[in-house]
Design goal:
Blueprint (H helix, E strand, L loop, with lengths): L4 H9 L4 E5 L3 H10 L3 E4 L3 H4 L11 H14 L4 E5 L8 H14 L3 E5 L5 H9 L4 E6 L5 H4 L9 H16 L4 E5 L3 H10 L4 E4 L7 E4 L1 H4 L20 H13 L14
Parallel strand pairs: 1-2, 1-8, 2-3, 3-4, 4-5, 5-6, 6-7, 7-8
Helix pairs in contact: 2-4, 4-5, 5-6, 8-9
The structure holds 3-methyl-2-oxobutanoic acid.
């Protein structure tokens, strides 16, 4: 069955989960389809795991289009989410031009790393038929402002701000929300405050879906984050590792406390 935004929305309503993984090419997409992974993310993490950069900021719209088209050609039924890279949505006009390219390349939805400041951009994209996933919490594209990768939503004030931002983005037409590296209790509160499906990465077990970077799951990236898990270690094949990840998310066995951030 083809996965659409309605499938993911239904999962939220039914308190069921879904699995997302980064995908960059046709061969892995076929494997992910066979396993039944619902959502494929063409993430700008490709700058680090494919291109060998230290951050994601060198990734271009053309890079994401190339990999989105490669995934879309092989994809049969997963939902395709594509990243808007660094500076590609700095103005409403830029966002419209670049999001159009990603949708034409085969994406079903675009993801923007943002806060409530992007409400007008979200609204314009939505009005033009482009579904938006807002990525909040840790924003890797802002690494040079933050001076590193840090846990988000740690204080009550930060948690309240995150809830406020999420509500603003939902009201602006955002149809999915991704939270990265967020204190598990804060992510839970954000998820409960909005009606759209959420995806977590390092955001505890209560978001609707979970996402991980494929190279971390397969143990081929040398410095994986604490919240990720190498599913290849206990598997005999890549397909088995993907299946184990998918099942662990489905049964809510992943992420455990070990792969989440808690207050103590
Ligand atoms: O680029 C990416 O892979 C991402 C995930 C880390 C969520 O945005």
């Amino acid at each position: 069955m083809t996965v659409t935004i309605n499938t993911l929305q239904q999962r939220k309503q039914n308190q069921e989960t879904f699995t997302c993984i980064t995908a960059y090419d046709a061969s892995f997409t076929r494997l992910m389809n066979q396993v039944g992974i619902e959502c494929l993310l063409i993430g700008d993490s490709l700058g680090m795991v494919l291109q060998g950069h230290k951050t994601t900021t060198s990734v271009t719209v053309d890079d994401i289009c190339y990999h989105t088209a490669s995934v879309a050609r092989a994809n049969e039924n997963s939902f395709i989410l594509a990243d808007m890279p660094f500076m590609s949505f700095a103005t409403v006009d830029k966002a419209l031009t670049n999001a159009e390219k990603l949708i034409r390349a085969g994406a079903n939805m675009v993801k923007i790393e943002c806060g409530a400041w992007a409400a007008d951009i979200t609204e314009k994209l939505h009005q033009n038929g482009i579904p938006v996933c807002a990525h909040i919490g840790l924003l890797p594209q802002a690494v040079h402002i933050e001076g590193g990768y840090k846990i988000q939503g740690k204080t009550p004030e930060q948690a309240a701000q995150m809830i406020k931002d999420a509500k603003t983005l939902e009201s602006a037409g955002c149809q999915m929300l991704l939270m990265e590296c967020v204190l598990a209790s804060t992510a839970k509160a954000v998820d409960e405050a909005i009606n759209i499906p959420t995806i977590g990465i390092g955001a505890g077990p209560t978001t609707t879906g979970q996402v991980l970077v494929m190279h971390d799951i397969l143990g081929v990236y040398p410095t994986p984050p604490k919240f990720s898990k190498n599913f290849m270690k206990a598997s005999g094949s890549i397909q088995e590792a993907l299946e184990t990840y998918h099942l662990a998310v489905k049964n809510r066995e992943f992420p455990s406390i070990e792969h989440s951030f808690t207050a103590d």
